[in-house]
Structure formats: structure tokens, C-alpha cells
Amino acid sequence: MKRSELIVPVTILIHLLLINGFLAWFIPELYFNLYSILFFNATWLLSAYAIDYYPTSRKERFFTNFHKPIQLYILFTLGYFAWFSLSDTPLGSAQYHAYLLLGLFGSLFAYRILFYYTRAKYREVGGNAVKVVVIGRDRNLKKIRKVFDEPDLGYRYLGYFDNSHSKSPTYLGKVEEAFAYFKNNQVEQIFCIASRLSQPQLFNLMAFADNNLIKLKIIPDNKEIFTRAMKIELYDNVPVLNLRELPLETPYAKVVKRIFDVVFALIVIVGFLSWLSPIVYLLQRFDSNEPLFFKQKRHGVNRKVFWCYKFRSMATTADADTKMMTKNDKRVTKLGRILRKTSIDELPQFYNVLLGNMSVVGPRPHMEVHTEKYQVSVDKYLVRHFVKPGITGLAQIKGYRGEIVEQSDIINRTRLDVFYVEKWSLWLDVKIIIKTVLNAVQGEEKAY
After folding, report:
1. Number of Cβ within a 10 Å radius of residue 398
2. How buried is 335 (Cβ within 10 angstroms: 0-12 exposed, 13-18 middle, 19+ buried)?
3. If DSSP states are collapsed to H, E and C, what string results for 16-56?
4. Residue extents of the structural domains in the chain
5. Nearest to 348 by CA among 302, 310, 313
6. Cβ atoms of residues 18 and 72 within 8 Å
7. How far apart are CA 215 and CA 210, in angstroms?
8. For residues 370 and 12, what is the distance between their CA atoms, to the nearest angstrom?
9. In the CATH scheme, what is the code of domain 130-224?
């Protein structure tokens, strides 16, 4: 018997028990106060509500919305310390409170691990299962079957109905035979491929589903127009497909990414560039008397032109703004080889981040002449320019950095950049940064 409706309330209860237990144990003199109890519980619940933390879909896994618990922990931490100023309660040792919160969040995170692990195992043995049938067959059926065949998601795929006869073991019969099958087999969800049904058939199926407590999900006509960033929007009850709904277009994402960029840039500028720049400048004197920084016009968000800064690693030539760096390029100075090999030459771009021209993570900015070239020769190339360019990016950590030797290099770079644009998350940025640092330490083949 299914009790999936209890998952959210039970999870909320366990979270509140952990929070109240930790606070009552570590700060009993403060916690046994009605106002503080109400404040801390309300802070958690309101923060969870603000980020839509608890509603989860059947397809959600441990890493699906991994950013949400991090957001929730940050919001609760801010509320937690706000109590001490609002109530005029002495804070005491900040280190003590930091350990308390780390222990609390560690326990909440351990529960998250246990929850998703237990749910996956329970579904794999048949628990919390939902029986699904598909009406119609086209190329989408094969794609959606991949989801149904994941045992931890709890789908039990029974087969499909279609008016075109098939010898497939999952073929259940013609569309008109489906209604009797639904009733006899307690089908709970129907996925209907709209292109395979007439309008009367579709309306009839909708009425049947509503009258038999079956959830009906429509797969729209496949006109090869869909993207990973597609979203359905309602305009006065008229469904409209937005084919380019980007995560970074939301006000929340813009603020979070900008704060992350500014903080990260300040750390690098103050912690590294403040003392590294004079050293690089002195070492450059042995190679040339050219300026410390090299600047070049690049295309940024919405193709807006900006000056991109780097430590000078190459001699100035007439083709500097048109010719891409190549392997064993004679323009590279002795010091420049070291700077490029370690990616130190890229560090001044954190000034671009601070100025708002770039982000720490994003598609790499190209020279103007290359943008003009690739926008007509590479499909979806300009999708990269919906967001700010980055110092590092998904394409770079996957090996598509530097010189473009084959057409496949720019195609694959664009493909990964578009994926990043459509699937951005703060956690993805963190993973890319970590991988970038590891690559810099280990050395990269195209870092020349």
C-alpha cells in the first residue's frame, strides 16, 4: 500500500526534531524560551517554503536539486545569527555556534543520504511503484522508456497501445482496447503521444482519465523544436512553449551568481594578484619592455564587446586580434610558456569578473573575428552569448580549450557550452572550478 503522501510531512517532522534537538541540547538556557523556539522553527519552515524545498517529484534523485539544501542551510544560518541581534541575546563564542551548525547540517545531510538510499532500495524491490502505460508509438517512446526502466524511480512500465500492429513484447493492442486494460490492471499513469491520436480520441482519453483517477500526461507533437531549456507557460490558459527558458534568467540565479563571482574575484585579486602581479612584471623585464597586461576585445553576453585582460605571454604582432594561439607558437615568450602552461596568464580576468564583464564560470569569450566566423558555421553557437563568458567553463574541463584544430573541436565546445547555459546551477559552477584547479595542477595537453 502506498504512503507516498506521508513522505513530505514525515521529512519535515524529522528535520524539525533534529533542529530542535540540537538547539535544546547545545543551548538549553536560550532554547527553552517560547519565542526562540517559534523563531527557529519558523525560520526553517519559511526558508524551505521560499526555495520550494520539500515538494519532490518521482524522478528526483540525490543530486537532482543538490543546490536546494545548501541554499536552505545558508538561509537558516542567517536567520539563526539574526536572532541574537533581534533579541539582544549575547552571542558568546562564534566558534561554538559554528560547530553547532556544522553538526546540525551534517545530521540533516546524513538524513538526506539515508532517505534517497532507502527510497531507491525500496523502489527496486517493488515498493512505492506506479504502473504506467503509453498511448502511441514514435521516437519519443524509446526515450521515455529509458526513464521507466530506471528501477530506483519506481515506474512499472506495462507496455503501449498503438493502432499500428507490432510484434514487440510490450505492444498491448490498438488504442480502442486501452480503456478495458486500464481498468483491469489498475493503471495509475498514462503517457499519451499526442501526434498518434485524433482530437476526439484525445478528449475521450482525457475524460476517461479524469473519471477513473488516472493521471494523464501529454507528450506534444514532435516537430523537432524541443530543447533541454524548454518550458510550458500559460497565457490566459493558452499553453505556449518557451524554447529557451534559462536558469540564469531568474532574479535569484542572477543575484546568487553575481555574489559568488564578486566574492571569488576579490579573494583571488587580494590573495594572489596583489603580490603575483609585481613578480610577473619584474620577470617580464627579462623578455620585453611591453606592458604587464595584454588586453583584447572579446564578445560577451548578448555579443557586447569588452576588453578582456590577461598577463602578457606573447609578443605583440599585427595578427594578434585575428590569429588564434597554436602549438609551438613562436609569438610566445619564455615566461609566457610558463604562464600559459599553468594558466596563470588568465588570472587578470578576475578584474573582468569584478567589473561585471565576465563570470568565474561560463563559456570562454572568443575574439570578435572568431565569433563572426563560427556564428554562421556552427549550429547554436550564439546560444553561448545568452550568459556572461567565463574564466573557465564546462568545455574547458572536458578538454576543449585553446586551439581549434578540427571543426569538431568548436562543435563539441559549443555543445558543452550550450549544455551549461541550459543546465546551470551553483553546484555545477563549484564542480567546474574544482576540476579546473585539478587540471591546472596535473597539467593539460592544450595548455600551451
Report:
1. 15
2. buried
3. HHHHHHHHHHHCHHHHCCHHHHHHHHHHHHHHHHHCCCCCC
4. 4-124, 130-224, 249-442
5. 310
6. no
7. 8
8. 52
9. 3.40.50.20
Closest CA to 423 of 67, 89, 132, 75: 67
Whether residue 43 contacts residue 76, with contact meaning beta carbons closer than 8 Å, is answered with yes
Q: Which of 77, 71, 69 is nearest to 23 (CA)?
A: 77
Residue 138 has what DSSP assignment?
S
DSSP state of 404: -
| Global pTM value | 0.58
Burial 242-268 (b: 16+ CB within 10 A, else e): eeebbbbeeeebeebbeebbeebbeeb
Query: Cell triple for residue 230?
Result: 524548454
Q: What is the pLDDT along the chain (448 residues), one digit of tens a residue?
A: 355 667 888 899 999 999 999 988 988 877 778 888 899 999 999 999 888 888 777 778 888 888 899 999 999 999 998 888 888 777 778 888 889 999 999 999 999 999 999 988 888 887 888 899 999 888 777 888 888 888 888 889 999 998 888 888 999 999 889 999 998 998 988 888 888 888 888 888 888 887 787 888 887 765 555 666 677 766 556 666 665 678 888 777 888 899 999 999 999 999 999 999 999 999 888 877 788 888 899 999 888 999 999 998 887 776 666 666 666 667 778 888 888 888 888 999 999 999 999 999 999 998 888 888 888 888 888 888 889 999 999 999 998 877 777 888 899 999 999 899 988 988 999 999 999 998 888 876 665 4
Neighbours of 350 (CB within 10 A): 22
Q: How far apart are CA 155 and CA 99, in angstroms?
A: 41
Which CA distances in Å does 58 have to 96, 119, 206, 240, 298?
Answer: 39, 10, 22, 25, 44
Locus of grid cell 528535520: 15
Nine-digit cell string for 416? 558543452
What's the CA gap between 353 and 443, in Å, rounded?
24
Q: Grid coordinates in use for 238?
A: 493558452
